[in-house]
């Protein structure tokens, strides 16, 4: 994930909230993510998607229907400015057009789309390119949340006509109707749900043109800042990824970014990260890939990732994932 987007701690906080009566699981849930329990109290903290997905993977081992449960808790207000801009839109269709125009602000792992096919409007989530083992989880969380957003926007439940999923029916499918009260189809051609297209013309109960224009202006500004920061962070991650065997260090990386070490450090701090964290994240992702290849012995992986000793790599991997590399491979 060399161009992972930054996101908030919202999903991580929701996950910990699901296990709030089992505080002894906190360390297990955060294991390998680089997120400390103390970070959860900072509203402006930003994490990478790799960190978020690690916590999701940890929690998924404890609860199979995690994606559905999280989706049912992610109201439109969880999406910040773009959520409030959608709430104040004139019609349901206007709100959807707005949200699709600013996908970066939604923080989704998918390419979202809304297409009218005959009398039905289909909301779909496609082009998932992240951890394959978490695809079903992310589809469930995404579509369940989008359905909840529809209900929030309208001030009433949106009646669904159908819901389709590309994967096989899970063992907990009896929980699907809590979000998708309609005919369900698994092993389908897409991940999507449908509703009568006539609802797109429905006026929203919280429509307010003054508030909407103010929120829209903030969305434009936030999106511009977000896009610029992501491009800058993406360049840093690309440079580090190309030099994993011989990491450049902060000063040489700053030279490659045509700025001073102080400026680089400050920008990274504003993005909620730092040099060593980015390097560790890239090493961890590459290590997991190489450990999946039997012809790469652990000593060779350690050398490839710039570790002077195999033992140092083993200790680092244990810190990142909670298990030694040999166990992860098996």
Topology diagram in text:
Elements: E1 6-7, H1 10-18, H2 26-30, E2 47-48, H3 49-60, H4 66-71, H5 80-87, H6 92-101, H7 103-106, E3 111-117, E4 120-126, H8 135-154, E5 162-164, E6 184-185, E7 192-196, H9 209-241, H10 249-256, H11 261-270, H12 275-291, H13 298-304, H14 310-321, H15 325-329
Parallel strand pairs: 5-6
Antiparallel strand pairs: 1-2, 3-4, 4-7, 5-7
Helix pairs in contact: 5-6, 5-9, 10-11, 12-14, 13-14
Spans of 5+ residues with little confidence (pLDDT < 50)?
Answer: none
Shape field:
globular
Integer average pLDDT: 90
Describe the biggest sheet? 5 strands, mixed
Percentage of residues assigned to helices: 40-55%
Order of helices and strands: EHHEHHHHHEEHEEEHHHHHHH
Instruction: Give a count of the beta strands, DSSP E runs of length 2 or more.
Output: 7
Spatial strand arrangement across the major sheet:
3-4-7-5-6
Please give the domain count: 3
Count of runs of 4 or more consecutive helical residues: 15
Which structural class do you get from the secondary structure elements? alpha+beta
End-to-end separation in angstroms reads: 23 Å
Strand content: 5-15%
Radius of gyration: 21 Å
Domain HTH araC/xylS-type: 234-330
Pfam family, one: HTH_18
Protein name: Helix-turn-helix domain-containing protein
Organism: Pseudomonas xionganensis
